[in-house]
Structures are given as structure tokens and as C-alpha cells.
Amino acid sequence: MAVSRAVRDLWLRRLAAPTQRGFHLSPRPLSSSAHQASKAAPSEASDHSYESLQVTSAGTHVLHVQLNRPDKRNAMNKAFWREMVECFNKIARDSNCRAVVVSGAGKMFTSGIDLMDMASELLQPEGDDVARISWYLRDLITQYQKTFTVIEKCPKPVIAAIHGGCIGGGVDLITACDIRYCAQDAFFQVKEVDIGLTPDLGTLQRLPKVIENQSLVNELAFTARKMMAGEALSSGLVSRVFVDKEAMLDAAFTLAAEVSSKSPVAVQSTKASGK
Prior knowledge:
By secondary structure, the protein is an alpha/beta fold. The chain has eleven helices and ten strands. It has helices spanning about 1-15, 35-40, 80-95, 115-120, 130-155, 170-175, 205-210, 215-225, 230-235, 245-260, 265-275; strands at about 45, 55, 60-65, 100-105, 160, 165, 180-185, 185-190, 225-230, 240. Strands 1-2-3-4-5-7-10 form a seven-stranded mixed beta sheet, sandwiched between helices. The protein has a three-stranded mixed beta sheet with strand order 6-8-9. Belongs to the enoyl-CoA hydratase/isomerase family. Pfam families: ECH_1.
């Protein structure tokens, strides 16, 4: 009883203690069996083999989708746009999967579009007919939009776990997810105007719905300034902030395990009804 009371008191103190950044960090959860299993023996999920992603089983009914180009800061190359659609279409049909955690390998979540890889088709399309180039770009952007729409339409709840930078297309990605956690080192940046592009892959449509503040959305989109973790929490972009990546992933997998323990029909119907 004494030990139990001491643990409870420590938990409450951690909940109440403010951080130097002026917001409350969520405490590290008691690790779920699902996350313990994923840390002990991460195994690649069957039927998921990709160049830009790594998909592993994180315990019963939970999949972990990692953006997996850490040497390129998880920049979104040509393979990424195709593979995300393939991956989440498979997850949607996977009756064994009930919840998904999306994170980034390495030091950050994602640096956004890989301009080195994408420049030829995005910034320098072939031809000199303005009308045909415009139609080509319209079709190309529509295809890119599907990369994030497929997450939004996936019947399984998708939890984004963000650490470090979440830049450009990363914001498009996380706003298509159902739940967002981040580490205190996270920052969010609608970066497109700095490189002469329009953020037209979903951010301008989804972010106002998420944070319910069009003025703030415009500020972020027009200036490309960074939104730090504390502001992301207070604005409603994320629901919890953790001291580091490990604590955040602990919490994300614990949450995914709890979600997956519920009736999948009830959970997926709830997600569908909320769209």
C-alpha cells in the first residue's frame, strides 16, 4: 500500500509540475505490453516492404509506420508519395490491424518534400505550353493529395508521434491523422512560401478544422514561422507533449494498445461518424 501510494503521489507531482517552457509535460506512461514487444523484437509486418517507409508490428493489432529516410531527414521523395498510398490501402483492408502509430526515424519527423528528388517534375516540368504544364501540375498535385487523404480515410485510428522538425508536407501528413502527440523538441512549420510554393496538399483545408483559428493558420502559412511544442499544445494541434521521443512513443503505443482493445466495429464507426 505504501509503495502504491508513493507511486501515485509521484505521478500527481509530475502532472502538476510546470516546465520552463510554460506548459505542462505529460508524464511517461506505464509502458504497454504492445510497446514492450515492439522494442524487444520489432518485426517487419507481412506484406509491407518499402523504400521510404518501415512498417513493423507493435504488438497485437497495432502497426508502427515509420518514415524511414533518417539520413535525408525523412524527406518525402518520389517513392514516399506512392508507398504511403499503397501502405495505408493495405492497412485499411487488414482486419488484424486496429490502430496505427506514425513516427519518423532518426532526429526529426520529416523535413518535408525532397526538392532534390522532386524538382524535375514539380519545379521544372517539361514543355513550354503554359496550359498543358498547368494541367500536368494539377494532375500531379491531385495525386500527391491522395497520399494524405488515404490516411484520413483509413478506417483505423492513426496516431501521429512527432519529434524534432515537422516541416512542409509533414504538417499536411499529421493534420490527416486522428490524434497527435509530440515531444517537447518538436516544431511545426508550414514552409511552402519560403520556397515559392502554395501549401496545397491539405494543410489549408485541415489545419483550420484542427485548431479552429483561421487567423493563426493564415499567420503560419503567410510567414512560414515555426510553431513550437507549447504553442502546438495550447492551439490544439497536439493533445499532449512529452519530455522526449522515447516517452512520446511509450505514450503513443500505450494509447494504440488501449484503442485496439476496444470493439473495432465501434471504434471504426466512431471515426467514420466524426468525418
